[in-house]
Specification:
Number of helices: 3
Distance between the termini: 25 Å
Shape: globular
Largest sheet: 10 strands, mixed
Structural class: alpha+beta
Strand content: 25-35%
Number of strands: 10
Helix content: 10-25%
């Protein structure tokens, strides 16, 4: 993990692709474990370290994750996410779009989550058990084979960006679950939580951060 911001209330980091945010059946070391160990060592904390997680990122996704060092910060930060008061952008690499149009485009789908497959299916019209999903995207840049998109979520659904982009033929590079033809060498998908902006839940200071791109060379081929 890369530390982007730290004070007595928050620890904001950039997660590496493949790093799991919190525990699951694999039993692998989590981002939360790594962050707790960092806090414990840096501040010589005895006993258990408190770190709350008001949101998370999928394992193959990289980018910004907010961790809360106090219960007060966790309660307030969770409310900011829930009330839509946190502005986030994501960057994604998709098959090349043959246009120079860089206007914002909005997508609306209806998602049904399959728990067994850990996958969400996007439909153009409402279905029983579906939830509406909305996002906006625009083109940042192109290289010879791929296009770099910036994305803003208007709703927060399971695998929303991955399923909605795949539904319009723009499967994220490396995302085998949603139809990519091949994996990335490091097992990642090219989806990155790039920026975040919000008002600090305790100090009320404006926070605006950008996470550096992962080391996968493809990210660094766009101008």
């Amino acid at each position: 993990m890369t530390i982007l911001f730290e004070d007595n209330h928050l620890l904001i980091v950039s997660k590496q692709p493949g790093e799991i945010t919190q525990g699951d059946k694999t039993g692998d070391t989590t981002l939360l474990d790594t962050a707790k160990a960092y806090i414990k060592e840096k501040y010589h904390k005895p006993g258990e370290v408190f770190l709350g997680l008001p949101h998370r990122l999928d394992r193959p996704t990289s980018g910004i994750v907010v961790l809360c060092r106090t219960s007060k910060a966790l309660t307030r930060m969770s409310a900011l996410f829930r009330e839509g008061k946190v502005s986030k952008t994501y960057h994604a690499i998709v098959p090349r779009i043959h246009t120079t149009d860089n206007q914002w485009h909005q997508l609306t789908h209806y998602l049904i989550r399959n728990e067994k497959q850990n996958k969400s299916y996007a439909y153009p019209t409402q279905r029983q058990g579906s939830k509406q999903a909305q996002l906006k995207y625009h083109i940042i840049s192109h290289n010879d084979r791929y296009t770099l998109l910036e994305i803003q979520l208007l709703t927060g659904r399971h695998h929303q960006i991955r399923s909605q982009l795949a539904a319009i033929g723009l499967t994220i590079r490396g995302d085998l679950k949603y139809g990519a033809p091949r994996s990335n060498p490091d097992g990642s998908i090219c989806l990155h939580a790039r920026t975040i902006s919000f008002t600090h839940p305790v100090t009320q200071q404006p926070i605006s951060l950008t996470a550096p791109y992962p080391t996968l060379p493809l990210w660094h081929t766009f101008k």
